[in-house]
Amino acid sequence: MSATEFHTDREEDYRFLHSMLMEKKVHLLFKIHERLKRFEKRRPVPVQQHAASLASQLAEELLYHGWRDEVKELLTLISKPHFKSLLRTHDSVAKRDFEPALLPLPDDAMEEDEESVKIGATIKKDKSTGAIVVARIMRGGSADKSGLIHEGDELKEVNGVSLEHRKPKEILPLLACSEGAVKFKIIPGSTKEEMTSRVTKVFVRALFDYDPTEDPTVPCKDAAVAFKRGDVLQIVGTDDDDTWWQARRLGDGSGRAGLVPSKQLHERRVALQRPRALFKLHNVKPPVFPVPEDVDYRAITGIHIAGLRRSFRLGRKSSRAKKPAQLRRWSSETHGAICPRTYIEVVPYHKEPKDRHRLIVLVGPSGVGVNELKRRLVISEPDRYGVSVPYTTREKRRQESEGLDYHFVSVQAFEELILNHRFVEYGEYRGNYYGSNLDSVQRVMAEGKVCLLDVHPSKIKHVYTSEFKPYVVFVKPPRIEELRLTRRRAKFVCDEDSTQVRMFSEEDFEEMLDQAEMLDSQYGHLFDKVIVNGDVAVAFRELKADVEKLDEPEVQWVPAAWMRSAPTKAWRSCSSLTGWI
Ligand SMILES: Nc1ncnc2c1ncn2[C@@H]1O[C@H](COP(=O)(O)OP(=O)(O)OP(=O)(O)O)[C@@H](O)[C@H]1O
Q: Kindly report the CA angle at 402 between 400 and 403, in degrees rounded to 5?
């Protein structure tokens, strides 16, 4: 090689190197390298493990924040499949839970006589030791029933095959190909005491519906439990998990436990949906005002039924009245307060023969037939059912009797009763007070009768105590077609003085249905029973049978707060019993 050639080569090399180093891509690679080097030293730790669900919740919330350009841009960005995949990858790295797997043990390995029972367990690689450990045992599944495998146990061998250095994914085929009994070699993860203390015996009533098939965030749809508002769930494990609990639904027959959203998780979801709820609330019509009625049921039925007059709920008459000054609400109304409804702790209650009857609270939109049902109950068994006699400050009329139609009291006496919190519900109409008084309710109950009370649901809180143990029945209108059909001949009182009656109009039906929807969405968590009042005879029979059931020795689930002064320690951590009503 000549010197000139050598020189030329060097020249070319130099040019090549120069052009390569000037390449933009190479510069970017250097930058990435430097950045990675810096992060290597800092060892960043993920701040959270649910970035993907957080982003989808954020996207949902952004929908309610107008359509500004920045919002639009952010929404487009977090909705992109690449971005979503990135977050999902981030989450699995954050959890170091790269390959979670449901352990498909054959049923007969654990439970010979229950072939239908599915094994329930998940395994994962322990991030610090690299060992394969049992992550979750589904209560009621084969693994749980065998009593041999527990959460935190380390799996060493399956059928003699060592699991060392194996990934969870590699263990599944080992189980799949095993026939008959499966042998595990296990190192127990916790002591027996620790294990039993993990299984809580807390029962809750769900205050919302949950359908895992519609929940994109549930870790495993098959392992989740669906429930409806009002269902009683036994919380069998919270596993220190603030997102998913394990629970079994009472009465579903399987005894299998599965995942349900934790109180915290549901609260977070409700909080994110709140803008929508608040938006809806602006349309809510004002609720309760006193509207007395003087229908003479004694003349109609031959039985004197004290207190069976127009309820103190705001009638359709009042909500339409264009004279708001005439009607003034006095009691402090907490109607608009919204608290996320999650779960309420409940305990079993067995009614003893010496116990008083539970208070029956009937609620429903105006005109739905609450009074009608009350009246039918009292007439059917006047010695068993009673209604409380309301209080008023107005003058007694000639045909009225003290203590039968009303308790006629002075304004001063009435206001003292208000100050002493003796009213479940009260208000003022044309300069006179009217109210449903706790003493009246207590008197009916002391007579050994079933007291029927008709209040706006926002007032239930005044009787939500162990003394009254209210059983709340929501009387719901049927679909509009059935309303038209069943109320063809029905008349209702349509003026403030209860002197005029008229037929129901299409608008009345629509308003009744709207009100029912609003009551259900705002107070549905308080309802023990929903009765659709289509055919009144059917509704009455259903109501009567339901109320009679409360006297049977069957277990009734009542709020734990009624039966003890303070919530259990175990539950205190996962539920606040205040502020939900
Ligand atoms: N299922 C039904 N079928 C036909 N008519 C009914 C039915 N239920 C109630 N009614 C009639 O509808 C009218 C209104 O019923 P009711 O007075 O019981 O309503 P309400 O819910 O108590 O209303 P308010 O809150 O205004 O007092 C009455 O004439 C009653 O007889």
A: 120
CATH architecture of 390-437: 2-Layer Sandwich (3.30)
Find where tokens 């409360």 sit.
550
Q: pLDDT higher for 143 or 462?
A: 462
The predicted model gives 344-363 an average pLDDT of 92
**Strands 244-249 and 258-261, bridge-based pairing:** antiparallel
Q: What is the CATH number of domain 202-272?
A: 2.30.30.40
Pocket test for ligand 1, best of 492, 504, 519 (most atoms within 8 A of CB): 492
Nearest to 64 by CA among 214, 265, 284, 279: 279
Mean predicted confidence (pLDDT) in 461-468:
92
Instruction: Tell me what the mean pLDDT of segment 442-455 comes to.
Output: 95
pLDDT digits (tens, 9 = 90+) for 162-199: 888 787 777 777 766 666 667 778 877 755 445 444 45
The Cα–Cα gap between 133 and 136 comes to 9
- The answer to whether the beta carbons of residues 46 and 93 sit under 8 Å apart is yes
Name the residue with the closest Cα to ligand 1, atom 2.
536
CA-closest residue to ligand 1 atom 25 = 366
Comma-separated ranges of CATH 2.30.30.40 domains in the chain: 202-272
Give the ligand 1 atom nearest the CA of 368: 21
147 compared with 266, residue with greater pLDDT: 266
Q: Which fold has domain 353-384+449-554?
A: Rossmann fold (3.40.50)
With a pLDDT cut of 90, the percent of the chain lying above it is 31
Pocket residues for ligand 1 (CB within 6 Å)? Answer: 310-311, 313, 315, 364, 366-372, 486-487, 490-492, 533, 536, 539
Domain 114-187 sits in CATH at 2.30.42.10
Q: Which of the four pLDDT bands, split at 50, 70 and 90, describes residue 222? A: confident
Distance in angstroms (rounded) separating the CA atoms of residues 292 and 330: 16
Q: Determine the Cα angle at 530 with ends 527 and 534, to 5°.
A: 150
Query: Could you tell me the pTM of the whole model?
Result: 0.62
Please identify, by atom number, the ligand 1 atom nearest to the C-alpha of residue 317. Answer: 26
**Beta strands 471-476 and 529-532, pairing class:** parallel
Rounded Cα–Cα distance for residues 227 and 216 (Å): 16
